[in-house]
Design goal:
The structure holds two protein chains of two kinds.
Chain A: H1 2-6, E1 48-53, H2 56-68, E2 78-84, E3 87-93, H3 95-99, H4 108-114, E4 119-122, H5 125-138, E5 146-148, E6 161-166, H6 177-190, E7 196-200, H7 203-212, E8 217-218, H8 224-228, H9 240-248, H10 254-259, H11 262-268, H12 278-286, E9 302-312, H13 319-333, E10 335-346, E11 351-362, H14 365-370, E12 385-397, H15 411-426, E13 431-436, E14 446-450, E15 470-477, E16 479-482, E17 491-494, E18 497-510, E19 524-531, E20 536-542, E21 554-560
Parallel strand pairs in A: 2-4, 7-8
Antiparallel strand pairs in A: 1-6, 1-7, 2-3, 5-6, 9-12, 10-11, 10-12, 13-14, 15-21, 16-17, 17-18, 18-19, 19-20, 20-21
Helix pairs in contact in A: 7-12
Chain B: H1 11-19, H2 22-25, E1 30-35, H3 42-51, E2 58-63, H4 64-70, E3 72-73, E4 84-89, H5 92-103, E5 110-116, H6 124-137, E6 141-146, E7 157-164, E8 180-188, E9 194-201, E10 204-208, H7 210-222
Parallel strand pairs in B: 1-6, 1-7, 2-4, 2-5, 5-6
Antiparallel strand pairs in B: 7-8, 8-9, 9-10
Classes of the chains: A alpha+beta, B alpha/beta.
Amino acid sequence: MRQAGKLPLPSAPTAPARRPSGARPQWRAGSDLPERGAAPPPPLARRITAIHLPRFAMERWQRTLARRGDAPPEDIPQALATEGPHGPVIHSVNRAAEEAGVAAGARVVDMRALCPELRVDYANLAGDRAALDRLVLWARRWCPWTAADLSAPGPAAGGAAGLVMDTTGSDHLMGGEAAMLRAMEEQLSALGISAAPATAPTHGAAWALARHATPRSLCPPEALAQIVAPLPVAALRLAPQTVLLLQRLGLGRIGDLAAVPRISLARRFSRAPLTENPLLRLDQMMGRLAEPVGAGEDPPRFAVQSRLAEPVQDPTAWLPELCRELCGGLAAAGFGARRLMVSVYRTDGEVSSVSATTAMPSRDPDHLCRLFEGRLERIDPGFGFDLITLAAPAVENLAAIQTRLDRREDDGAELARLIDRLAARLGSGALRRPGPAPSHIPERAEAWGPALGHPKPATGPTPAAPRPLRLLYPPEELRVLYAVPEGPPAQFVWRRLTHRVARFAGPERIAPEWWRDRPGARLRDYYRVEDQNGRRFWIFREGILGDGRGHEPAWFLHGIFG
Amino acid sequence: MQSAPPAPKTHTEILRDRSRPERHEAQATLSEVFAETVIDAAPVGFVLARLGAVGKPILWIQDRLSRRETGRPCLAGLPEGTEILHLEVSRPLDALWAMEEGLRCPSLGAVIGEIWGDPAVLDFTATKRLVLRAEAHRVPAWLIRRAASASLSAARDRWRVKSLPALPEPDDLRAPGAPLWQAERFRSRWSRTGTWVARPETTGLILEHGIAANEAPAQQQRA
């Protein structure tokens, strides 16, 4: 450390961790922030906390299953796998599998040979990332400058994840750093997440201590060099091949690396990128190279409330004003609401709420107000309530757009409003927008998706024969009165009425889809038949005699022609 | 739920309108179609042919019994390019409310409601509201009634439709071809009442007198 200090320092000045310019901090620490124009604080003045979540992927998977009601047993080895270039690769393991010797990064077939009772499921990497982003917001309870730690090279081994937070000046709110780290570990374990936090003056040192030192390590600035010296070089957030190279050079510990003359390291690694450059990583760890914590913005929250002078029973009269106020806020921020929630706070301490969803982001106060028309009666007012809040829990960007030159309304927006009103009153499952789907089976050739949400454009095959106007779900079985060897039955009974087939067209043979159906599924021969009164039906025979897939084929009525 | 009623007409205007029934043929309004039998899909085909190509989505409302007894609309069987928004409700009151909401939206091509039986809420007042709203916003509305009796209603046109044996298929004498329906207009505000044989064409619905319709297929067969 002493030798290194005499060498020329990198040109980048040491800067304190700051928010990106333009961001408005929502929390101020009074005397911690330097005065504008004052001398920059000495290096190592910050306190960075890193939290290592060693089993994040596996614990999230276990929690998901437990919430569904089938929690996996702890004592059976379980692994999550991802697709590798030569077959699936272990991504994350539980404790039982770890004790059995299953290692992350190995191939699943090798580990099956080692541990035959190993259970394997596929990892959901995108879901893990989204869960980590939500956890970042949750973790802002300790410090507002919290971010997901993505500084390590490559995917985190073993399904691990990390958080990093700039806790300078916020530890005293939790009773000191030791108490804060203990609280972090406890509250995360209450969520079912095992965590190892550590605090150090730099991001690199905190990362290293959280992963390679005793739990809840604290590193004062003056002891930084002594504390990190015995840690392995893998604690420098280097790529595996660089770690291997350093070990072959005989540099196993960070102390060894720090003792090497700076000029030699600079010459050897001058062109290496950051994740393969031990000198830059060492500078980051020692605070000679700035590495601020870049915390993202909090998602915008939109909520308005109305305090009433005395308890009332009906919130209808206050809703238009609340909607107007909320939409003002949404318009100022350039957002539109996708979901709205009205909550009333009753005098007896209960809270009840009603929510509504929109098909397109909207900030039209009249429209949003009408979504609650006829639904506020479902709120149980009890003895009255004295506080009403209107919140938009889900918002989307909504730029002001002009679609027409004349001043009339856009057709799409009108339709979206209609969908909102119908779905708000009658339930989003009742209103559906059918579209074609890629299948030949008639009931699968149409996708009945909910009209709320973004419709997916799809195309289906064009049928060769005419299709009926109505389809019955499910097809209804016919009783054949008079069967003929070829073609449809001459007489059949459907809904206790006898129909005599006067004319027919067909058959149109539709084979089962072997990639979706059960193995025993039978083909269908469809006939278009007309009965003695001129009514036209679409009937089919399921299977043919002697196809080896069941007994005598049955007849069904599937559709009605106009 | 305030509808914007059209401006009241003077007596002169009403008399002038009566002298020109063709003006009203094209006007969007509420019409009712009664199915002769429950399992007949002829009213649906009749309504779709009567609407023609609307080019906008159709709001299709079914109550639970209509949906269970006569199935759902089949997308592949509808005329090319028809886009529907399907709403399934459990009470006739909800169906009427949804129809009124839909008629307020000018970006819909039509509103079709299927109501089973004779619910008490479907009275003269309810149909009058639908008529006023459809005419004010120029969105055609059709009520398809099954297992129902033609009681008091404000619908401008009331039809009774049933299937007739289809035209012969030109290439296959055993097969049914293009559909034919017997359509009876038994009550109308502006147009003639009577019974016709209806058949869908690419240009829309063609109404023919029964005798003329009987002759046409005979000529086709001779040709």
